[in-house]
Design a protein that fits this description.
The structure is a single chain. The chain is α/β, with parallel strands linked by helices. It has a single domain, classed as 3-Layer(aba) Sandwich (Pyruvate Kinase, Chain: A, domain 1), CATH 3.40.1380.10. Helix content is 60%, strand content 14%. It has a 5-stranded mixed beta sheet with strand order 3-2-1-4-5, sandwiched between helices. Helix 1 packs antiparallel against helix 6. It is elongated. 30% of the residues are buried.
Length: 288
């Protein structure tokens, strides 16, 4: 049976852990509100950009020059680049492990093709530093405050490698933010840009002064940058949501452990008091 001192120390340790997890939950909740708002604000622009590209592509469908943009080129896939978006920190449940598991499945499904990983987030950098996968670049501390310029740099690098023929496809792996309790691990193709379904219906009511090839030349790079940026925003919001959920569960578990330890402490203390009383009564009876 543990001593009272050991039990009190253990209870104090659990209380300290409970305070830490509760504080982390509150911090993640505050960050989640801002990150969630950023995701919501970015989606209308992304949707409208997709509609515009579909509309322009539909109008220029009969013009060979309009659909000859380098970012639209589809060729035999020999080399693939995968943008892996992980978290910057741990203590967020299965958030990071789901990404790494999906990345492993992606690489295994591409046997015979060269797969290079572009790592965004410190956990991905740490994870793959101990493994043999080919890494084309690393980006750390990019999800604390998601910056459009960072997404632009990452997307520009991917577009440059695609246009120059170093890679034939570019994909992005990230946790898409659905709601506080649901983050969906998603693999999305970035390059080449595929035609939007129903593009012919998107251009009703639109008139364009510039020729389609000029408009696509301006819109397609923005589309790639926006896709990477929205993916980073989704990943950041999903990480905060996962951490808030994990810390909430840890706080509840700590509370349950405290209740059990306190009850056990009271039983041990009662048994100790009872033993002392018996010893006193036995000693008094022996003296008589």
């Amino acid at each position: 049976m543990p001593s009272l001192i050991d039990l009190r120390r253990r209870i104090q340790s659990v209380k300290n852990t409970e305070q830490i997890t509760k504080a982390m939950k509150m911090v993640s909740a505050a960050k989640l509100r801002r990150a969630q708002q950023a995701v919501v604000n970015s989606r209308p622009y992304s949707t409208l950009l997709e509609e515009m590209i579909g509309s322009v592509a539909a109008h220029g469908a009969d013009e060979e020059a309009a659909l000859s943009h380098p970012l639209l080129e589809q060729r035999e896939c020999r080399n693939v680049q995968l943008l892996v978006l992980s978290g910057e920190k741990g203590l967020c449940g299965s958030f990071n492990s789901n990404v790494f598991k999906a990345a492993r499945q992606f690489v295994d499904a591409r046997l015979g093709q060269g797969v290079e990983l572009e790592l965004l987030g410190r956990k991905a950098v740490d994870f793959y530093s101990r493994r043999s996968e080919t890494v084309s670049g690393t980006w750390e501390q990019v999800f604390g405050n998601v910056d459009y310029s960072t997404a632009e740099t990452v997307a520009s690098k991917a577009m440059k490698r695609f246009v120059e023929g170093e890679v034939d496809e570019v994909w992005m792996l990230f946790n898409q933010f659905k709601n506080v309790l649901n983050q969906e691990t998603t693999v999305a193709q970035v390059l080449p840009i595929l035609p939007t379904e129903g593009a012919a219906d998107n251009g009703v009511g639109y008139e364009y002064e510039q020729p389609p090839e000029q408009l696509l030349g301006a819109l397609l790079p923005k589309r790639v940058v926006t896709q990477v940026y929205v993916g980073m925003l989704d990943s950041a919001a999903a990480e905060h949501a996962a951490r808030m959920t994990a810390m909430d569960a840890a706080t509840r578990n700590a509370g349950e452990v405290l209740e059990k330890l306190t009850l056990y402490l009271n039983r041990v203390r009662q048994a100790s008091i009872t033993t002392e009383i018996i010893e006193i009564v036995s000693g008094a009876a022996a003296q008589e």
